[in-house]
Amino acid sequence: MVIPIVEPNTCIRGCCTSSSIPLHLPPSSYSLLSPIARGAESVVYEGTLNGHKVAIKKPVLSLSQHINDFHKQLQLLCKLDHPGIATLIAAHAKPPNYMFFFKLYQSSNLGHKLHVEEWVPTVNDALMITMQLAKALQYLHNLGILHRDVKPANILLDINLCPRLTDFGLAEYKSDIKEVSLENWKSSGKPTGGFHKKNMVGTLIYMAPEILRKELHTEKSDVYSFGISINELLTGVVPYTDLRAEAQAHTVLEMNYTEHQLTAAVVSDGLRPVLASEDLGIPSRLISMIQKCWDANPKSRPSFDDIVNELDFIMEHRKVKNVEDMHIRPCNLHIDHHVDMTYQESISWSTQGELLVGNASSATDPCFRTWESYDEPLAYRPILSWGSYATCGRREAMEDTHFILPHICNEKDVYAFGIFDGHRGAAAAEFSSRAVPAILQNLGFTDSPANTLVEAFLRTDTAFRKELDSYRKSNRCIQKDMHPGCTAIAAIVSGNRLFVANSGDCRAVLCRAGNPTALSKDHVASCLQERERVIRHGGQVHWQVDTWRVGLPALQVTRSIGDDDLKPAVTAEPEITEHALCAEDEFLVMASDGLWDVMSSLDVINIIKDTVKEAGMCSKRLATEAVERGSKDNITVIVVFLRPVSTAERIY
Ligand SMILES: Nc1ncnc2c1ncn2[C@@H]1O[C@H](COP(=O)(O)OP(=O)(O)OP(=O)(O)O)[C@@H](O)[C@H]1O
Ligand SMILES: [Mn+2]
Ligand SMILES: [Mn+2]
């Protein structure tokens, strides 16, 4: 992208100059589209500059000091040019608009990648990221610049997952540092002032003990933050969160309280996060390097020159020895799944579900884009972050399954989520959790999202019953009278459109302007309409014990995948609801009936309101609360935030 430079290319004060980066832009050359992130000091937007997609960082300028800071940051950014550092393309440094234009890095930041997308890197991925980042910091230190805010949220990833260090909001020339820090502690009160404390929840855990003791920042303080960040990359664990696994810090208040104790433990007791383990193929020298980086004594920490040399050695050694690359953690570690083995012996229903529909990930057919929201380029675009939690609860066996499928057919703005609640065994739920996403991928955008969802449910049901039949005929490892089934709910978010398909009694709720909107209706025999439909299709309904039930198996639900002894009365055909999302939509909650048995939609919304705004933590809190309230069933929860959540309430 070539942007003409208008001379004199300086900011309004004349303190920032550059020969290659334009510092004032005609207003017609750029536009702000949707916000990507709201930080403490800025809002980052996706936007365009001369027709190209860019990231636009617009600082919050509420004090004159903030304008000084902008100029300082711009002077610094103009000097930087390194493949490990986010590229500044242009800036606008004239009132009333102060903006930085960066290259847009599409693969989000490392914190999001690890904890929201649950990305599991291979050893080589991890080594490459570590090396690139070390080289970027080596480059800065050679220029006499300290970054002072190294953490995964400030490490962007490009499409090749190469890291790009960003956020120079706290960066300083080492030579200026004495003066600045004294001034900082006094005037702005960083990091002890009330406001900053609130916003430092995320940063504190990366701060070296000497910084927590309010001593001066040196190169070695960046080394410490680097060590903590790389260990987080290797373990996939937000530093110290494992400490609170039992205590379950759910609210910001609780978090702040623990942060206080944490600071004391890091400074006085030498507490550090749990170190990555060698078991999963991580080179032992990399692990010892991390330990040296977070040594309590700054003088004992290596410099980035030392670190780059050591990494060179580790990588060369792997190459010579031809060490096999592998993932550094098993994928999907967080789900406590117990598979019901009573009748399925050696059949893996999940694998069957995947195999049956062909290898979805290799779907190479170009997808035809017929999904309507793409015709409206200016339509509202929600920004999603999601998490899930699944627990057996008080049951012996886990019969719930779920899937999360971001970026269907590599489309950035298209996501699918689904939950399956098995009955009479887990087979149907296990099969469906693989088959439904695979079919969605395979169908791509050839039909409307609503039709695609219906098709996915029906095809999964047919495929599962056929498979079951062939097992029965071949007399292999299945009892003749077993008719497993599952209820199913799935959602597709495509641009600003939300589609929910439901068969059975899982439920989806949207929080719109603080109030619950039901996105699904339960299909149970106690519902007159459903009872009549079952009878019309040849099924039998009777009152038994306390409620209406279907057929001999006395099923309470009237729609499901599987249950082949009750077909076609108990249909797999879902009901679909469709909504246009808008700025008032805060989040979407999907859950199996184990949650809804003990909680109303309003309860769910209120609980999320006072929980740390991290989707995984919200899901866990809801499920845990449901167990506490006496739910006797398996519980699976998926929470999807539909707009950016405040950094102050995020945990990384
Ligand atoms: N060039 C970019 N491309 C894509 N996403 C970006 C880009 N720059 C920033 N972001 C996103 O915006 C987030 C915030 O950016 P940045 O850290 O620069 O802002 P900040 O206001 O200083 O935030 P903080 O609250 O961490 O101080 C990043 O974590 C990243 O997810
Ligand atoms: Mn940041
Ligand atoms: Mn910042």
TrEMBL record:
Recorded superkingdom: Eukaryota
EC number: 2.7.11.1, 3.1.3.16
Entry's transmembrane regions: none
Coiled coil (residue ranges): none
CDD domains xrefs: PP2Cc
SUPFAM superfamilies listed in its UniProt record: PP2C-like (SSF81606), Protein kinase-like (PK-like) (SSF56112)
InterPro entries named in the record: Kinase-like_dom_sf, PPM-type-like_dom_sf, PPM-type_phosphatase-like_dom, Prot_kinase_dom, Ser/Thr_kinase_AS, Ser/Thr_Kinases-Pseudokinases
Cofactor(s) in the UniProt record: Mg(2+); Mn(2+)
Gene3D superfamilies membership: PPM-type phosphatase domain, Transferase(Phosphotransferase) domain 1
Reaction catalysis annotation: O-phospho-L-threonyl-[protein] + H2O = L-threonyl-[protein] + phosphate; L-threonyl-[protein] + ATP = O-phospho-L-threonyl-[protein] + ADP + H(+); O-phospho-L-seryl-[protein] + H2O = L-seryl-[protein] + phosphate; L-seryl-[protein] + ATP = O-phospho-L-seryl-[protein] + ADP + H(+)
Alphabetized UniProt keyword annotations: ATP-binding, Hydrolase, Kinase, Magnesium, Manganese, Metal-binding, Multifunctional enzyme, Nucleotide-binding, Protein phosphatase, Serine/threonine-protein kinase, Transferase
Protein kinase domain segment(s): 30-314
Molecular-function annotations in GO: ATP binding; metal ion binding; protein serine/threonine kinase activity; protein serine/threonine phosphatase activity
Ranges where the PPM-type phosphatase domain occurs: 385-642
Family: In the N-terminal section; belongs to the protein kinase superfamily. Ser/Thr protein kinase family.
Protein known as: Protein kinase and PP2C-like domain-containing protein
